[in-house]
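=== Given protein ===
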Amino acid sequence: MGRIDAVEALGFTFDHGREPLAYCLVRVVIDDGVVGWGEACDSFGCTYASVVEAAVADALAPLLVGEELDRLDRLVHKMRSWTRRRLGHQWVAAQAISGVELALWDAWGKVRGRPVAELLGGSPELAPVSVYASSVFLEEGPADWHLGLLEPLLSAGVRAVKLRIGVDWEADLETLAAVRGGLGSEVAVMIDGNENYTVSTALAIAERLAALGVEWFEEPVLQEDHRAMEEVAARSSAPIAYGEHMFGLAEFAEAIRRGWAGVLQPDAATCGGLSEAMRIAAAAGEAGVRVVPHTASGPVALAANLHLAAASSAVDLLEYPYPLAECWAAVAPDCPLGPDRVSGGALSPPPGPGLGVEIDLEAVRARPYVPPPPRTGPSERFTGTV
């Protein structure tokens, strides 16, 4: 099937105007000239891309260069077997493995001339995937401003949106009530808490969200505090969602067993790759837990999660981070992922073999990676206890 000649991670920074964001692509080169593209995500772009670059260069590339591109499960097992007692299987290690695994899937699909969704067990016709509009923090503007941001996607048939609530949550809830009224009852609304709250505050917010008919309350408390997660999930008036900071089937299986969330959000660019995400979706589906994959990064990560959603019968909705679309168009100009390609509230995985995304390498290299300064954004500037 071809020998792997090179594996490299490529970090870059894109200035979105609101703020610059870092991203990290992964490039796998096969000796017959096939190039597979992957991407690592730490939930919102890839903040410290140079760290992922080092993990790929030092730990993962030496394991793969010279190997035959034959069985992806064998190659992933080789990476995981080596990193298990050295880097572990969470956080940066999982993100780096995810990026490499996506690139291997892309190369594998190109070699076989088939889309990744089909190779994962889905239909070769790549049916459109229903998406929800993943938007910005409520504190960034009044209700009319938020409704204006969302209007292009609402006009394209999107019937679910997510907004982010910050530390001044009482003011944010007032804005949310106005947004909720402007959207009408036919549009579902979700709220992301970004792990900002104590149990008591999270429960108070959840009660207000339930009164507004909010679909779910995402990451209300610190995910590292499992007792708090369980208490909030058990007592919350609104459904709870977690998953963008979970890694591997074992952790998601524990979340299912212990009832941490009623909605699970694996991300193929974060949780360990597409194969792991498929196993996670299947386990959640079997347990009756809703699966709505997370994605908040560049074009390859979005394409990979579209293929995941198209292949898995457990997935009924996918996050669509439309504020990042300018980056997708800049580094993958031929990739049909922009808001103008959303129709009937759905987006199709890019057509063609593999993941269907070709990266403009020069556009990436023209945007060198810049480590981020200390952040003072909506969820970071508070220094006390909420």
